[in-house]
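Input structure tokens:
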């Protein structure tokens, strides 16, 4: 979505706004009458771009918000954030023309608030109904999907030390990080990084069940 909207914005600038300006300047210099449609088209495209700014900025930094990007309703959250961004931007556009319309700030804030409510109420899997997951299963999943980076001496060539000092070499270390592991792999899907190791939903559910069943180690 970010690439599509960004491409539209670049297209607006390089295919309409700048060429039209060049034509207008050339006409003026040559003493020809200037076609008012050229300016109107450019203005329309810059109005479009202005409204797309905040949604695109959000999409650019959205990798930091796995609560949103990893949510099953991510499309809805993005739509709400975009509408909120447009509303906030509209407040500033009006403000620059001397009108103060606080309701557009309010609409924007309400939409973003709706996003936070939906993002934090992700449907929980019924782990109580899942059969008990032994530590050996959880450890095997961590070894397969996390240990290349999260070890005292990572084997992943991109890492010289465990990221943020979080090493999962021993059962005690895995247990200590249990709630954070849940946060990164089940509540959100920000780990494994870029899902480089191809962790499946089933593995996430099993790891999550082991943690919610008390993160017991032998
Ligand atoms: C390709 C390397 C890589 C893999 C594989 C990986 N991680 Fe990470 N992990 C990172 C990096 C880099 C960070 C720090 C950046 C961040 O917080 O997003 C991190 C941070 C974390 C943190 C936060 C630690 C803290 O103290 O806040 C947790 C928890 C975590 N990872 C869990 C996992 C789990 C569980 C797996 C496996 C299912 C996993 N990671 C797989 C690279 C990786």
């Amino acid at each position: 979505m970010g690439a599509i909207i960004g491409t539209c914005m670049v297209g607006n600038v390089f295919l309409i706004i700048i060429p039209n300006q060049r034509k207008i300047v050339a006409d003026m210099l040559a003493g020809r009458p200037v076609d008012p449609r050229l300016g109107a088209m450019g203005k329309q495209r810059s109005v479009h771009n202005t409204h797309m700014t905040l949604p695109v900025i959000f999409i650019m930094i959205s990798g930091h918000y796995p609560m949103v990007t990893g949510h099953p309703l991510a499309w809805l959250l993005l739509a709400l954030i975009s509408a909120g961004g447009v509303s906030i931007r509209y407040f500033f556009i009006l403000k620059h023309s001397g009108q103060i319309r606080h309701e557009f700030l309010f609409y924007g804030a309400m939409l973003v608030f709706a996003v936070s409510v939906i993002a934090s109420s992700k449907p929980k899997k019924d782990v109580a109904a899942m059969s008990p997951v032994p530590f050996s299963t959880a450890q095997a999943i961590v070894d397969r999907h996390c240990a290349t980076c999260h070890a005292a001496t990572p084997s992943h060539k991109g890492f010289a030390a465990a990221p943020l000092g979080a090493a999962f070499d021993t059962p005690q270390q895995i247990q200590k990080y249990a709630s954070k592991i849940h946060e990164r792999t089940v509540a959100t899907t920000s780990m494994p990084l870029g899902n480089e190791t191809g962790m499946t939903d089933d593995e996430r559910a099993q790891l999550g069940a082991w943690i919610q069943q008390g993160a017991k180690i032998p």
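The two ends are 46 Å apart (CA to CA). Residues 18 and 73 are 38 Å apart (CA to CA).
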